[in-house]
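Two proteins, back to back. First:
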Amino acid sequence: MKYRLLTAFVVLALCVLTVHAQSGRRQKQPEPAAPVPTPTPEPTPTPKKADTKSELLIFIGADRNDSYSTFPYSYYDVTVRSCADRLRSRSSADVDITDRSLTRGEAIKKAKGDGTTYVVQLSLKLDSMARSYDDMVLEFVVFAPGTAKIVTSGHSYMNGNRAGPVVVAPRTGGSTSALYLEQMLKRAGEDAGDRILKSLHLDQVPKTP
């Protein structure tokens, strides 16, 4: 009986010491979790501009030094620019012009040397029956790129006394003002542009905005 009491006392003392030791021990605080990094958004790539350059190129010039006819250079300027404006406004073609004289040989050479450009040569003529500048005729020839073969050619007439696609007004006699002649030349150049578009099958292609 005596040994049992002693044993119980020893066990109780050990339990008290264990509880006291555990209560005095500092509890280790858990380390805070590492912050989750906020993902940096990737920069939105700048969209590349589409290449709007047309695949169809047209170059226009006029033979200003025709040995058979002598006209003011302003007449050639009007026909070249009005033809170019018509081609630009009614097709997606990139059109370039020259203010220098363009002979037939030079037009052929340029067409052969450039595999992507149609070359248009314009010229003004007076036939043997002409009585004044009212009877000027605008001739046009289109050379194919690379080969310089003639794609199309034709004439635009200036007045109502001749059969042709352009009729501005019949001649009433007397001298014609330079302004009126240039207006007729402008319409002749536009007509040449329309016929070139038709020959290249571009007359029904809408203009790209």
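And the second protein:
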Amino acid sequence: MTMTMSTTTMNMETAITTTERHDAFPGGQMEPLALLRLMQLVSPALPIGAFNFSQGMEYAIETGWIRDEEAAFRWIHGVAQRGVGSMDLPLLVRMYRAWSDEDAPRARELSRQLIASRETRELREEDRHLGRSLARVLAGLGMEGTEVWQRDEDATQAALFSLAAVRSGVPVDAACAGYLWAWCENQVIAVVKLLPLGQTAGQRVLERLRLEIPQICRSALALEDDDIGTATAGLGIASCRHETQYTRLFRS
């Protein structure tokens, strides 16, 4: 009887927590074409080569920092919260506003700031690669203003992602959620490849991350300029050491 009541209570608490997170996430109705554009931007089929990068996770697994499903979740969630959520997303929000105001120089400045925040050469090159690749895709789709970014040293995925979101009518909060979802999904794909984890375990990790994404985005939307930054020392160390790792599947 005690075990049954305890399980029931846990299920109720999980349901309440999930509902609270859902209600706390700002959002609204999105036009069908805008929603489809967002789905296109976050799709693993988008040909920008995101699958080539693990962002230091390959070294973290090689050295034993990540050994199982729980450790994988903690690593990805930690970087999502204290890295992507506190640096990439706040800058994406500001780039979104700059593109909305047709202020391309401001968007470029913010994109440059994002690249400058990266601790290692691999992470900077990853940003530039994904940004230029997304620019090529968007230019191929006929999106005006993206051609100049195809060989630009200041290009980042966040800059082109926010531009596409503005041009397609994707709300800024939905753009943040989509960007973070795509990042989390790519990290899960990487960890499933690197660990004997299994697809179902990978989906469990992704499900736990899904429940955290709304609050991370909400915090990013509210972050003041002076509070933007990262606290991901483990990622920085892993990325540094990955540059000289003997055998590698990923470029970062």
